[in-house]
């Protein structure tokens, strides 16, 4: 065995792993992630990595468990779900086999969650919502009507002031003032 290991070292390969008399360490079975992986949480932030690691000077996503930096989010997710990372966490890549009882229990949990969601939605009343929307629409119509009335009254006032100004500028009042001042016309031949 030692000779074999020596030959492997000369070839640049790692020595073979030998099983000792006792069983190998048992590893946990592969499990689903408990929560969502927050990739956006570190955007725009700087994280200082130990200077001794080879990945310290590179930008990207850093894995503390494996002391590895990967370039992008997809590579980071591949790394987290990969064999080497799982091995560092003492997990095997084997998935636990589920029994019929486990599947039925999970389906029951999902059914209860759906019923809870349905009960939360039971408070919603369609007819009350329609009535509220009609009231909002009615208020909007009244506001528009009032705005139109204000516009019309202000527009009518403007027209009235414009017509009095027109009367003063070119009406009979100017002739009377001209006569008082002794001016019969302002140079126009038309009368």
Task: Tell me about this structure.
This protein is elongated. The protein has helices at residues 2-11, 73-80, 83-88, 100-121, 126-170, 172-181, and strands at 28-30, 61-63, 68-70, 91-95. It has 191 residues and is mostly helical. 53% of the residues lie in helices and 7% in strands. It is built from 6 helices and 4 strands. A two-stranded parallel ribbon has the order 1-4. Strands 2-3 form a two-stranded antiparallel sheet. The model has no long low-confidence stretch (mean pLDDT 77). A hairpin with a 4-residue loop joins strand 2 and strand 3 (68-70).
Task: Label this structure with key terms.
6 helices, two-stranded parallel sheet, 4 strands, single chain, mainly alpha, 191 residues
Quick structural overview:
The chain contains six helices and four strands, in the order H-E-E-E-H-H-E-H-H-H. The chain is mainly α.
Question: Which helices and strands appear, and what pairs or packs with what?
Answer:
Blueprint: H1 2-11, E1 28-30, E2 61-63, E3 68-70, H2 73-80, H3 83-88, E4 91-95, H4 100-121, H5 126-170, H6 172-181
User: What is the number of helices?
Assistant: 6
Largest sheet: 2 strands, parallel
Instruction: Write down the overall mean pLDDT.
Output: 77
The residue ranges in which pLDDT falls below 50 over 5 or more consecutive positions are none
Structural class per helix/strand content?
mainly alpha
**Physical arrangement of strands within the biggest beta sheet:** 1-4
DSSP helix fraction: 40-55%
**N- to C-terminal separation?**
132 Å
Regarding quaternary structure, what we see is: single chain
Q: Which H/E pattern describes the elements?
A: HEEEHHEHHH
Radius of gyration (CA) equals 44 Å
Our estimate of the beta-strand percent is: 5-15%
Tell me, what's the shape?
A: elongated
- β-strand number: 4
């Amino acid at each position: 065995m030692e000779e074999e290991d020596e030959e492997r070292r000369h070839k640049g390969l790692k020595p073979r792993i030998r099983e000792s008399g006792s069983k190998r360490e048992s590893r946990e079975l592969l499990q689903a992630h408990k929560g969502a992986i927050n990739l956006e949480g570190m955007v725009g932030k700087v994280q200082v990595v130990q200077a001794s690691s080879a990945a310290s000077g590179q930008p990207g996503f850093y894995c503390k468990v494996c002391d590895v930096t990967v370039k992008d989010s997809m590579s980071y997710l591949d790394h987290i779900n990969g064999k080497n990372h799982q091995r560092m966490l003492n997990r095997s890549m084997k998935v636990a086999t589920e029994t019929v009882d486990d599947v039925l229990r999970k389906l029951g949990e999902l059914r209860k969650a759906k019923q809870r969601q349905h009960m939360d939605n039971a408070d919603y009343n369609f007819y009350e919502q329609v009535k509220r929307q009609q009231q909002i629409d009615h208020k909007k119509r009244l506001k528009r009507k009032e705005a139109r009335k204000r516009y019309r009254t202000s527009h009518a006032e403007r027209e009235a002031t414009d017509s009095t100004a027109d009367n003063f500028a070119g009406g009979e009042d100017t002739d009377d003032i001209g006569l008082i001042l002794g001016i019969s016309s302002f140079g126009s031949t038309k009368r």
